[in-house]
Automatic annotation (TrEMBL):
PANTHER family: HCA OPERON TRANSCRIPTIONAL ACTIVATOR HCAR, TRANSCRIPTIONAL DUAL REGULATOR HCAR-RELATED. One of its GO terms (molecular function) is DNA binding. Residues 5-62 form the HTH lysR-type domain. It comes from the Bacteria. The keyword Transcription regulation applies. This is Transcriptional regulator. Pfam families: HTH_1, LysR_substrate. Keywords: DNA-binding, Transcription, Transcription regulation. Belongs to the LysR transcriptional regulatory family. SUPFAM superfamilies: Periplasmic binding protein-like II (SSF53850), Winged helix' DNA-binding domain (SSF46785). InterPro entries: LysR_HTH_N, LysR_subst-bd, WH-like_DNA-bd_sf, WH_DNA-bd_sf.
Amino acid sequence: MSYQIELRHLRYFLAVAEDLHFRKAAERLFISQPGLSRQIKQMEDDLGIQLFERHNRKVLLTTAGTFLKNELTQNLKKLDNILDYAKLLHEGKHGKLDFGYVGSAMQEIIPNLLLHFKKEHPDVQFGFQEMDNQQQIDNLLSYHIDIGFIRLDRIPRGLRLQPILEETFCLVLPKNHPIDEHNFKNLQQLKDESFILFDPSYSPSYYEKVMQIFTDSGFTPIVSHNTIHAASIYKLVENNFGLSIVPKSLQYGYNMNVKFIELTKIKQRTTLSVVWNEQNRNPMVKSLIEKLG
């Protein structure tokens, strides 16, 4: 069966599928709304499939439309990557790597890795996005990033995980707090304090590990705030909204009025791992993983 479908039809369809609004999609595509409607109708006629349910006030995807949106989102991204890489080769550049990472990975791990990697690949380009663990997993599966740096123990099938750093936790306090490394004995001393923790959505397994620290210390913490950014945690601690517990590597790179006490006597440790999609054909991914080896 032959379809008279062009690449522009697919991009038009995705724009409407994402916005579920013909006018908004048309504005984003810089074409007229009637013109966009005709292109989508032509695509439906050529395929013999209804992709949208059109109502007076809203547009909905059909079951077939939902399937097509999910598949095209992934596969058009692969095509974009192929075309981008061909352009880089034409320009004499070796390639591009897009990274996702949790904040602690950017303190030392990623900069040190890239310094070594650039020695052998001087023309490689890098893209960086700080995001939580689940966002990285989603973006790896959809090929929007090539490499992730996460704090997760389990990942979906099709992804590979390689631990690169196991570290201790640190207690974070305002600089003017009476407890310091000289008179600190255990967390029981702070059972009546409020705590500011990374949001459970940041990493459910990481959050459970932190909560286990409190359980082993014999109390349930008063959690006053949750956030996904270390800078936000430190700003709240600095202003006496509570204390926190973070990975040791997060004590570097911030200039705030907080102090750290390394929790060396507890059994819990946190592991930073690099993760990638086994089906990712970006040749730079393999080169980087070999550098980590």
